[in-house]
Amino acid sequence: MRVLALSTSYPKHPADSTAPFVRAISHGLCKHGLEVHLLVPQHPDLDWAAGDPPVHLHAFSYAPRRWRRLHVWGYAGALVADTTLRPETIAVLPLAVASSRMALARLARRIEPHVLHAHWLLPNAPIAASVAGRLGKPLVVSLHGSGAFMAERHPVLARAARFALRQASHVTACSRDLASRAVRLGAPEESVTAIPYGVEASAFAPATGDARARARLELGVADDTFVILAVGRLVAKKGFEFLIRALETIQDSGTQPLLVIAGEGDLESRLKDVASESGTTERVVFLGNVDRERIGRLFAAADTLAVPSIHDDAGNVDGLPNVVLEGLASGLPLVASGIAGIPDVIRHEQNGLLVPEKESGALSSALRRLAVDPGLRHRLGGAARRVVEESLDWDSITARYARILAEAAGAEQPA
């Protein structure tokens, strides 16, 4: 069964961490016997010299390759701090939409897919719905977060989203929260299924003593340092500002905390100012962009993973941060905000600690508990790993996607 998927993000090269879940879903579908063709925007950094088998990658152009500044369509480049469209995005929008639609239609006529699959409600679902309707192909739409946010705030985009959601035979969402928002945007309730992301359990395993020692040596931290890891783009909805402010009371308690932030983004200078204002500059390390291999070593060095997600001032929020699942698989105790898709996989006091969003005091209290109680860290981390092994490995998650795509296409469903 051939699947033709449209996405605006995909890892740009093997070490890139952009939208790893799109790659994991695509590869997982191939493992379940589907032939997957994925259409993505061209980007100067897109570098899969030999392709990415077994996925068939196709890229469409919408701006001259040498004009790097205009390559903002997808790959987390369209928005400033994930809240407002960049001027460059507005400039290329008509051309990018037209180019992606033409490329998708041309590729569909060539490979004759059994079903079309749109990743992200906006901009891709309306484009795919237009092509699917014209060619008489079924459509599955997968919501990952930001597209729903845009549709909820702009009437014109809401109409485009409603058109796609009502044409789709099936809609998936990475959290129950996002699934309910899809229904409010116009998706028939019976067509919507919440499917959390998965994680490669073997790639993110609890660190052995030697691996942990090597990772902490690489990071340059002492044995008595309590390492708090945070991973993500430096945008408001990640909530890193509140995490940095939480350090002030943690270090006043006698604990030796170190907050390690892996990621880059528009708010880096602002977050460094917050550290300076709160007197925690010496306790915060900004690593910038970190490749996938080093992320695993950071998990090994950490004592806990903090995911302080928030609804930003515009109301935007993550669907289910991928780092949550990677932290669970790594056997780390997590402190995370109890919003969006996070409570779908973290149970408070069972495999992590949930706190209210935007409350530095609550973050500080939870982190202090973990800092002074190794037994609690061990219990929560062990339970976190078991959850992944029992229900959140990518193989079982992508089997659910495969069944939905097969059902949409009217094909025999994969085992």
Description:
With 415 residues, this protein is α/β, with parallel strands linked by helices. Helices cover 44% and strands 16% of the residues. The chain has 15 helices and 15 strands. The protein has helices at 20-31, 87-111, 124-135, 146-153, 155-167, 176-184, 209-219, 240-252, 268-277, 292-301, 322-329, 342-345, 360-372, 374-392, 394-409; strands spanning 2-6, 35-41, 56-60, 79-80, 84-85, 115-119, 139-143, 170-173, 192-194, 226-231, 257-262, 284-288, 304-307, 334-337, 353-355. The strands form three sheets. It has a seven-stranded parallel beta sheet with strand order 3-2-1-6-7-8-9, with helices on both faces. Strand 8 (170-173), helix 6 and strand 9 (192-194) form a beta-alpha-beta unit. Helix 2 (87-111) runs parallel beside helix 3 (124-135) and helix 3 packs across helix 5. The longest helix has 25 residues, at 87-111. The model has no long low-confidence stretch (mean pLDDT 93).
